[in-house]
Amino acid sequence: MLELNQLVMDFSGFRAVNGCSFKVDEGTITALIGPNGAGKTTLFNMIAGALKPTSGTITFQGGDITGLPSNELFSKGLVRTFQIPHEFHRLTALENLMMVAPNQPGEALLSNWLSWGRVKAVEKDVEAKAEETLEFLGLTQVAHERAGNLSGGQKKLLELGRTMMTDAKLVLLDEPAAGVNRTLLRKLEEKIEILNKERGYTFILIEHDMEMIEKLCDPVVCMAEGRVLIEGSFQTVRSDPQVLEAYLGE
Ligand code: ADP
């Protein structure tokens, strides 16, 4: 589904990613791990269109997407979430989801000059989808709460919900477990698993929570110093002496 080929990213002379290559198969949940400074976030930024690689190529579903901006990737079904959820604080949880839908009424009105009646119909569809999404995530009780008032874990669930409002195929999750309490973490894991197994989402996640990785991810790709150190099952990667050494040197 996704293929990274010899990706390099230089920041004014400093090589943050140094020839990174790996493939992601459709239907998998891949973990990207590695010590701080390994280049994981930079790699994510290149895949998601926030950074143009210095060299190398990225292929998504057979097409070259190297250097494409994030909005074009979004319309192809490649969506990224952030370590710190980017919700609109003053909008409610429901409104936050409605904002993300690719066929929001405002957009449709501008591009197609639809009748007001049609706009209202689209809005109703989007609202129904947002309500369904909140229900799936167990957030119905906070639908009309301002997103800024939600807990860290609820914000992460809402962020996942925002990807569900699009026709996402490949979702990049940036430290989904960070700052989430244990109870909500189990729920987040369960939802990621359902989206993967039942709704066909492929995921790549940057994560430090080994419990979550062990439960959800296969394969695990470990990066160090801008390169892929090893790739394999959780057990293989965890027991590799190079991985231990990379973390010790952090
Ligand atoms: P990780 O996510 O694995 O912790 P990063 O991708 O954030 O690693 O960073 C890899 C390296 O690149 C680090 O040494 C970091 O300081 C450096 N780096 C990241 N972004 C920039 C930037 N915009 N300018 C200069 N150096 C950067």
UniProtKB/TrEMBL annotation:
One GO cellular component, as annotated: plasma membrane
Species this protein is from: Roseibium aquae
SMART domains: AAA
GO molecular function, one term: ATP hydrolysis activity
Start and end residues of each ABC transporter domain: 2-250
SUPFAM superfamilies attached to this UniProt entry: P-loop containing nucleoside triphosphate hydrolases
Entry protein name: ABC transporter ATP-binding protein
Family per similarity comment: Belongs to the ABC transporter superfamily.
Keywords in alphabetical order: ATP-binding, Nucleotide-binding, Transport
Lineage start: Bacteria, Pseudomonadati, Pseudomonadota, Alphaproteobacteria, Hyphomicrobiales
Superkingdom classification of source: Bacteria
